[in-house]
Amino acid sequence: MPVTTNYNQYAKFKERQIELADMLNDSAEVISELNMNQFQENLKQLGMKVQNDTFKIQVVGTFKNGKSTFINSFLGEEILPAYALPTTAVINEVKWGEDKKAVIHFRNPLPEKLPSGIPEKAMAHMSKFNMQNIPPLEIPYDEIEDYVVIPFDKDPTEMLLESPYEKVELFWPLPLLKNGVEIIDSPGLNEHRTRTKVTMDYLSKADAILFVLNATQLCSQEEMRFIENNLKKEGFTDPFFIVNRFDLIKSEREKEAMKKFAKIKLQGCSKNEIYYVSALNALQGKMDDNAEMYYASGMKEFEDRLTEFLTKQKGKAKLSQPAQELKRILNEEALYKVIPMQRSMLGSSLDDVKKRYESIQPKLSELKAKKDQLYSRLMLKIEQTKPEFKRLSNRNTANLTESIPIWIDEFTPQTSLGAIPSEKKAGEVIREISEYVISQVEENQQDWRKTVLEPIISEKANDILGSVEADLTEILNQIDSVNIEIAGGGYKVKTVPTWQRVVGAVGGLAIGDVGLAFSGGVNGLSVELAKTAAFEIGAGMVLGALGLFNPVTLIGVVVVAFVSNWLKGESKAMKKLKANITENIVNQLSKNADESSTALAENIGNKFTELSAQIVSAVDIEIKETENQINLIIDEMEKGKKNIEMKEKMIAGCEDKIKDISVKLDKLIFQLINE
To answer: What single-letter DSSP state applies at residue 246?
Structure first.
């Protein structure tokens, strides 16, 4: 019996995705005919987003847990090499392509110090662009390993240097990928913290997180730390945990015991079940078209559940939000506002329309002045928050300077200094201690961000945005009154919640989430702003102040001074070395505390400013849309009766097209809701 796949569900979703993208593009053309310029642009961008959206499946796990084999088994072909050595801090994106090829993307800016051993082709490409704003480089797909594998014959400090690559795209002609699935291969969690950070930074982009565990070393301390700190605490409630190499556990009794152990360890970490598989057997079964072997591997049950999760749960969100936004624009903006407004003006005399336009000019000027005053008030409120965030950051730094000596004192390095400490041994100890301090700082700052920083950002955002909500509502209502006045009455404007209207006008605000367009209040905006601002700041501000993104920095500062002044006796030498490390770290942190706190306050302020500018922009857009509509109709009326008749006919045609699209859209939304 041949192996059967469930690609048809992805294909069905792809069809609906294309259907909605076509509706968005068709609607943009209709909206353009009605001269609704801003909404036309919003729909075009939304159409491109829907059309190009894919299901991003991110695979994470520690090195040597069989991640590459698992990905290959999922794809049904040996695409990724099962690296015998860890890779650099590079994300591998496996996606659809007619031809097999690889494309390397470079960091911008590049790390200050690059590792040696970078292929000549890459170095020449970077040099060609003066090591700045480097465009992607295409390489043969079978040469990826030359670029991403860590040279283990190098000096240990050399191996810690960051890669110049941001990610590698691997294009491959497979049916699963053609139907809109991308596989994201992450660096191993136990390779190095810089590589772990790359994995963490990508998590928020993933539609599904697959955490590959090893049946022979299940739920290690390192894995559980990542699950607790980087998945659970960050709100990732639905990762899939896959226990690979389950076929190596021969005893049924041992298998049952392992399942109970995994269930206890991972309790509360995911809403999904735990899956037990043999990726190697699944791959072999697919490649040999051996259904019995594939089904026995446990992969089919997992793949079926993942497909359902993506195409129904995640897919529904991907399509329903833009579908609802399209429905809002077609109905509330076009059918019930712009079309009646244009018809009312066309039904009046040219002189009357011009007189009305002249009479509302002072009101439009007043609205623009109120908008400017609104922005000034927002900026003042934002400036008033910065000192508080600076004080908050300084208190955080003070707490860290008290904690760091305790962490260092309690830590026992694996490397022994010996009776006569050498630079090499001292450097290794410093690396171990600094890596430990970094992990402690990151964990500490994640807790601080979630429990202290985010709530205060949200509170201040509510205060800032809430302080102008009444005035903003009044301005928008006055714009509606102006529209009715210029049209000579004849229609009513449907009331739309203020924040929904603001977000819709600017296509999702700076946050970029169309779903926020359906928020009836300010809380949705402030919470999302808090998450975005706090996540981007994260532990990076503190680690940057420490100068500890790379232990090489600390090694260079401490090791020479220590070795030249070492004390006899290993315990005393270790104590002295720890004291030197503590002094350097605390001094560095204290030295940069004010600068770091100012930077944090400015970064948060910039986020507030970005959001405020978008809010004020929404008012600008509405005023310009009103002026555009008036000028368009006056221009048509000045051309004579024939043009007026043509315009009326065009409006009727647009109305019919919108109604046709709305019927199709309602059918699609009904299908999404009821599946």
So the answer is: G
If DSSP states are collapsed to H, E and C, what string results for 556-605?
A: HHHHHHHHCCCCCCHHHHHHHHHHHHHHHHHHHHHHCHHHHHHHHHHHHH
Would you state the pLDDT for residue 444?
A: 85
CB 156 within 8 A of CB 192: no
Under 8 Å between Cβ of 370 and 477: no
d(C-alpha 248, C-alpha 367), whole Å: 72
In three-state secondary structure terms, 421 is coil
Q: Which of 38, 40, 35, 41 is nearest to 622 (CA)?
A: 38
Instruction: Please report the pLDDT score of residue 278 as a whole number.
Output: 93
The pLDDT tens digits for 481-525 are 998 888 887 677 777 778 777 877 776 654 355 444 445 566 666
Q: For residues 354 and 500, is the Cβ–Cβ distance under 8 A?
A: no
The CA distance from 577 to 429, in Å, is 9
β-bridge mates for residue 170, sequence order: 94, 102
Choose among 91, 253, 273: nearest CA to 186. Answer: 91
- pLDDT at residue 511, as a whole number: 39
- pLDDT given for residue 565 in this prediction: 63
**One-character DSSP codes across 46-63:** HHHHHHH--EEEEEE--T
User: What per-residue confidence (pLDDT) applies to 522?
Assistant: 66
Contacts of 621 (CB under 8 A, 6+ apart): 38, 505, 506
E strands, 245-325, where?
Answer: 274-276
Taking residue 60's Cβ as centre, other Cβ atoms within 10 Å add up to 28
Using CB atoms within 10 Å of the CB of residue 128, give its burial: 0 to 12 exposed, 13 to 18 middle, 19+ buried. exposed
Q: Using CA atoms, how far apart are residues 382 and 61, in angstroms rounded to an integer? A: 41
Task: Map 247-269 to HEC letters.
Answer: HHCCCHHHHHHHHHHHHHHCCCC
Question: What span, in angstroms and rounded, lies between the C-alpha atoms of 595 and 547?
Answer: 13
The Cα 265–Cα 123 span in angstroms is 45
| Stated length of the chain | 675
Closest by alpha carbon to 164, among 194, 141, 201? 194
Angle (CA) 212-307-524 rounded to 5° is 90
Q: What is the reported pTM?
A: 0.81
